[in-house]
Amino acid sequence: MSKPPVKVFNPGRLLRNRELGLSLVLLALVGLIGLRNPAFASINNLQFILGDTAIMIVLALGMMCVLLVGSIDISISAVMALSAMTAGIVMKNNLSQAEAQALAEGAVSAAAVKVSTPLPLLLLLAAGVGAGCGLVNGLLISYGRVLPIVATLGSQYIIYGLSHLVSGGQAVYRKDMSEDFIQFTRGSFLGFNSKVWIMLAAFLVLLVFITYTRHGRRLYAVGSNAEAARLSGINVRAVTLSAHVIMGILAGLAGMLYASHDNKITQDMAMGYEMYVIAACVIGGVSVTGGSGKILGVALGALTIGVINNGLTMLRLTGNSEFWKKAIQGAVILVAIITNVYIQRGHERRVLRERRL
Amino acid sequence: MASVTGKIPAFLRRREWLLAALVLLVFFWFNAREPDNYTFFKLLNQTRVYMVDVGFMALGMLLVLILGDIDISVAATAALSATVMGVAYRGGQGLPFWLSILLMLLTGAACGLANGLLVIRFKELFPMIITLSTQTLYRGIAYIILKDQSAGGFPAWYAKDLGYGSLPLLGLDVPIMLLILLLVFPFYYLWLHRTAAGRRLFAAGTNITASRYSGLHTDRIKLTAFLLNGLFAAIGGFFLTSRTGSVKYTIGTGFEMQAIAVAVLGGASTSGGRGSVPGLLLALLLLTALKNGLMLLYNDAFILNLSVGLLLILVVLIPNLFSALADRRRVLRQRLQLAK
Amino acid sequence: MQEMGAHPAGNGLVLEITGVTKIFPGIKALDDVRFDLRRGEIHALIGENGAGKSTFIKVLTGVHQPDSGTILLNGQPVRMTDPLVARRLGIAAIYQHLAAYPHLSVAENIFMGNEQLSGPLQFINWPGTRRRAAALLKSLGSGIDPAAKMGELSVAQQQIVEIAKALSQDASVLIMDEPTAALSQTESEELYAIVRGLKEKGTSVILISHRFEDVYSLADRVTVLRDGRYIGTWDIQEADSALLVNHMVGRSIDQFFPQKTAPIGEELLRVDKLGRTGFFSEVSFSLRAGEILGLTGLVGAGRTEVVEAICGVTRPDSGSITLEGKEVRFTRPGEALGRGLALLPEDRQKQGLLLPWSIEDNVSLPTLEACKKHRLLSRPLISRLGSRAIEQLAIKARSGLDTAESLSGGNQQKVVLGKLLSSRAKVMVMDEPTKGVDVGSKAAIYQIMCDLAAQGFGILMVSSEMPEVMAMCDRAVIMRQGRVSAILDRADFTPEGILRASMPVERKEAAGA
To answer: C252-301, pLDDT tens digit by residue?
Structure first.
């Protein structure tokens, strides 16, 4: 009868496994850069890279959901800014009260204890703001039928504008932050920065979501064949909306991580960060047209970007490599998506050749 | 639903009246708030700040939108082109100014050409993601070239006569760069709406497959559109620099959004096949009046960008809602007929 | 003909559908349609393209909601507000254009929407899913690996997965839309066996198929739809194919076709061992002036692909094309058109017309350069092209300014023809020229074809309709699975012969065929 696709151990097939290939590339990069500058490959530095990349991974997890359904979101840096700024302003305002209260109760110096709104509440607030932004984006895209790039291009500037309004033109500095908040990303556990643990938590939650829940699999279905999904009774619009909300929540969380790490919240923070995140997803094998992508690949892609970024600084190749980062980002994404196209075409040609003629 | 080019059909005609009415509305609204600063004469002068650079970019963007594609990299193209001009001229120490300008134009065309080649060679990818990456790349190259510095020192006439010069016309002081822009419009209109080439552009945007089957060289049409878009972006950058007097790698940020907003407000649709030059002009006027008023009231770039972002979304959203409503009404009407 | 009247519940009718109407903006897809399905029967639903069959299925599966009418399932009225409701009620459909997720695995495709959950958190049970999928596939006699990516399977394999999907939903009503379209003879026989097996288990099947072979092998009764309307239902024994075709088409087929009297002249087009990897290979035939050459075979045989390669839409990988004695190599349709080779594409709405544009704008598109005056387009010149096309082809429209989408299918096809004729073609390649076209326009198109042949055109016509091929063509090239299986002269046309040459064979059988 019909010939089933053969399942045989084929080393060529293993190499074609994207995640494996990416890991090898990553190791090679670390090795090569480490050769030029041994400090790069030190445990310390590698841990630093991991901590640094943690924020990107959190965002890339969200971006993956959005890309899976065939959409895109370039407003994530704005969402980060707005969420962090909102939480920051709340924290700043409540800080003063706490300080004043502490002084009134006879504390020796106000600087001794900087207490404000509890951190979990602030995180919730940031996540909420992020979710709200994601909701608006999602509504525009799935119900308003606005092109995702146009919707998020516009909302990017709107959200940055809101961040500006919320901030009242002021930034939130270290002195305005509660001790909890400052220490949030300082702490270590088992040698790894707390950012890494938070990232791991998010990673695991998303992993379970995308692999083991019905709703998670629907993201793939909608991106793979929206018409078929509709015929199956899947509410394509709701699924797309949910992807954007997930992105928003993660962006809100990432914004807080970023702000805590930076000890500073400005109205235009994180500008341009979305390109890193998209690059991470694309390198990690997420299809920009939707329907495929592995969560491990996304993490590896983000790590690759982190290694390249850090490596560039460490190598001091061209005076100050800061300036090359942007161009390299753009080039990397281009190369990655074009490579994907060639791989896909090669694959299709192979399938055609195997047809019985 | 008619969207033919040679004659402007009823629907679009309505839109142009609407735009004209909105321009007047916005003008009088801001005029009431700031009667001294927001007058017709002051506005005319301010068109050099708000209208000419975006205007050229919008003209280029219109071509791409008519195709049903999108190009996010126009602002970056403008920045890179202007950077090339500034660095080539090097305040008078480098190449002659006319050559620097030529290089600028070539850069813009090259950026557009690169976009176009990528779009036609990799049809599996959307122009959206391609131009998103080239945007980063182009601006990145500008950053590499210029770093955090600014390139200036242009010939005096550039800033004085072009950037801030005006011609007395009919008792008004009309900015020279505005005149140049307005002069372009009639030729552009003729080319787009009344020549075979323009017609083919609309065809490709309406149904690229059918156009190809009908014998049109759709790859060449796309390539040309993106190339011209890059060129127009460079020209926009040229005028932008003329009034700021210097170039930084960050110039033009947010302008891609404004260019899209103006073109779409003027009658283009992100799905392609539609577009109107008169509409674009009116939309440009509207945006200018709006930006000027906002800056007067708030003097805040964030507020400005916020408003333009809002405008862009509304401009795309509202027609979608209307057409969804129209479809529903149509079906209901047919159902009613059935019931009879 | 069967009498359809109201029956009390418990009459053995699984489905009873009356008065169903469905309107889309601008078109009435279903008009007061009725249908009934007995328990355990296989009921064929036939009709031409555009008759309303696929809308009907979508109404039955809850994708569309009818604007009026009732659906009784086992005597109870049901309202299927969405596909999930239909599925829960036991109605499953296998669509013609497969509704599959190419990026996902076979097992996941089978259970999408019907996921196998387990554990307190109701997570997806992947091992269980794969196991059940393997079991389902095995019950259909297939060894497809449940972990394989759907997009890597052949069309026939994907079809089997779709059936497994329907099985997994314990459907009591199974709707199959052109299930054997891409299957070989053996695979079709196996499918028949599966369907008969389902019937024995009590599943009721609605079978939609163009292949009368399917209908006569499987169906107990057959219903005809035409232009969205219910025409009639017959027991399969009472209905011979001529009767069915008659009702599908609306009038007797003999009065249909004009006489073709054109003399055959020089060779215009020759195709030598043309091939395109994965689609067709070793295709050779020639076309002469005044000749109407048919290119027939089943869906998936590669006919459209051959034609697209000849006309420059795609590029062949091997072989040569000779036009009027000169070898040609086209990279885009525009080049072919310039040399006199015109293609009337299969999908006139997506490939042939700019729907929002007017007739005259559509017709003038390939020849805009000729409509210029002082470097600008001249509206009068364009209008003239439009009116000429309307006149020559008898297009029913108020004027050249009517939009293409306002026209009926037949008139739309005429506009596409008009467009091609305005560009001085010598060879006309027509891909399914009368698909979805009303009866009156069909006759007109046939007449036009004969006139063109008389003028010295060479016409290559791709067609799936046997009567059309047999009546219109001087010769017929029959394709099967990407190769030419026979080239018959008109004198040797027989329906059985053509059919046999069209039916796919297994590779091992080919040697003995």
So the answer is: 555 567 877 788 888 999 999 999 988 899 999 999 999 999 998 877 78
In a domain, C134, yes or no: yes
Query: What is the domain range of residue C123?
Result: 13-254
**Do residue A150 and residue B313 have CB atoms under 8 angstroms apart?**
yes
Report the candidate in B71, B132, B66, B315 with the shortest Cα–Cα distance to residue A140. B315
Strand pairing of C326-328 and C318-323?
antiparallel
Say what the pLDDT of residue C415 is. Answer: 94
Top pLDDT among B4 and B340 is at B340
In chain A, where are the structural domains located? 19-105+113-353
Find the residue in A nearest to C153 (Cα).
A5
Domain A19-105+113-353 class?
Answer: mainly alpha
Q: Tell me how far apart the alpha carbons of residues B142 and B148 are, in angstroms, rounded to a whole number.
A: 10
The tens digit of pLDDT for each residue in C49-95 reads 667 888 898 899 888 888 889 999 988 898 888 888 888 888 988 87
Q: Do C99 and A227 touch (CB under 8 A)?
A: yes
- Rounded to two decimals, the ipTM of the complex is 0.86
Longest dimension (CA), chain A: 91
User: Does pLDDT of A20 surpass 70?
Assistant: yes
C20 near C230, Cβ under 8 Å?
A: no
Nearest of B319, B309, B237, B256 to residue B128 by alpha carbon:
B256
Instruction: Give Cβ neighbours of residue C399 (< 8 Å, ≥ 6 apart).
Output: C359, C390
What count of other Cβ atoms lies within 10 Å of the Cβ of residue C30?
A: 27
CATH number at residue B178: 1.10.3470
List residues of A whose CB lies inside 8 A of any B CB. 72, 74, 140, 144-151, 153-158, 160-162, 164-165, 267, 275, 278, 288-289, 320, 323-331, 333-334, 337-338, 341, 344-345
Cα separation, A228 vs A239, in Å, equals: 14
- From C235, C254, C273, give the residue that closes a domain: C254
With tokens 């080393």, the residue in question is A11
Task: Name, in order, each residue with C-beta under 8 angstroms of A119's C-beta and a sequence gap of 6 or more.
Answer: A178, A180, A181, A184
Query: Is C300 contained in some domain?
Result: yes
- Of C233, C254, C275, the last residue of a domain is C254
Q: Does A101 touch chain C (CB under 8 A)?
A: no
Q: H or E element: which one contains C294? A: strand C292-297
Question: CA A351: distance to chain centroid?
Answer: 34
Interface of B with C in 202-231 (CB under 8 A): 203, 206-207, 209-219
Residue B10 vs residue A284, higher pLDDT:
A284
| Statement to judge: residues C309 and C182 lie in one domain | no
Helix extents (H) in chain B: 10-33, 40-50, 52-66, 74-89, 97-121, 127-146, 156-157, 176-194, 196-206, 208-213, 218-244, 255-265, 277-298, 301-339
Mean pLDDT of chain A: 85
**Which among C138, C141, C144, C139 is positioned nearest to C106, based on CA atoms?**
C144
Task: Considering only CA atoms, give the Rg of chain C.
Answer: 25
Domains in chain C: how many in total?
A: 2
Distance of CA C502 to the CA centre of its chain: 16
| Higher per-residue confidence, C456 vs A36 | C456
pLDDT in tens, C385-410: 999 999 988 898 888 888 998 888 88
Q: How big is chain A, counted in residues? A: 357
Chain B nearest-CA residue for C335: B215
CA distance A1 to C188: 11
* Residue A219 pLDDT exceeds 90: yes
Contact assessment for residue B262 and residue B59, using Cβ atoms and an 8 Å cutoff: no
Whether B32 is covered by a domain: the verdict is no
Hunting for tokens 């560009």 — which residue is that? C423
- A191: number of Cβ within 10 Å: 8
Q: What is the pLDDT of residue C97?
A: 66
